[in-house]
Design brief:
This protein has 137 residues and is mostly beta strands. The protein is built from one helix and eight strands, in the order E-E-E-E-E-E-E-E-H. 5% of the residues lie in helices and 57% in strands.
Length: 137
């Protein structure tokens, strides 16, 4: 039973053009279990624009697979749902989907994209958190 979590580690970083005004940024904190091809954690989407999409927290789960070739050594898919409020003057909320895909190297740097209610971001940089880079070096 203990080898179910063999090789588990924490991955933290961002998806998006950090530093670009108004660009949505997805910050992830994930527990990765490569032996089970499993990824679970939290994604926080922030945007420097006031409104219902300026701070969204999503619990996600997904899959990770080794590519076996080139600089991109891993591919990751994430999926989750969150409560999305209707913009005023409408009243109410609904469950909205969040999806992300990453093509990354062993240090969790590469390219990816994500999609959530009325937003679709492609070809965005994926950058590992600085402390993660030090841990994996």
């Amino acid at each position: 039973m203990s080898d179910l979590l063999a090789g588990a580690y924490l991955a933290k970083g961002t998806i998006g053009n950090v530093g670009t005004p108004g660009a949505p940024i997805a910050t992830f904190s994930l527990v990765v279990v490569p032996s089970q091809h499993s990824v679970t954690g939290t994604v926080v989407i922030t945007q420097a624009v006031n409104g219902p999409d300026s701070h969204i927290v999503v619990q996600v789960k997904g899959k990770i697979y080794a590519t076996g070739f080139g600089k991109i050594t891993q591919v990751v898919s994430l999926h989750g749902q969150y409560v999305q409020s209707f913009p005023p003057p409408a009243i109410g909320s609904f469950l909205a989907d969040f999806d992300a895909h990453l093509a990354i190297d062993a240090a969790w740097n590469g390219t990816g994209g994500f999609e959530y209610y009325k937003h679709h971001i492609e070809n965005a940089p994926v950058t590992a958190a600085k402390n993660l880079k030090e841990q994996l070096a």
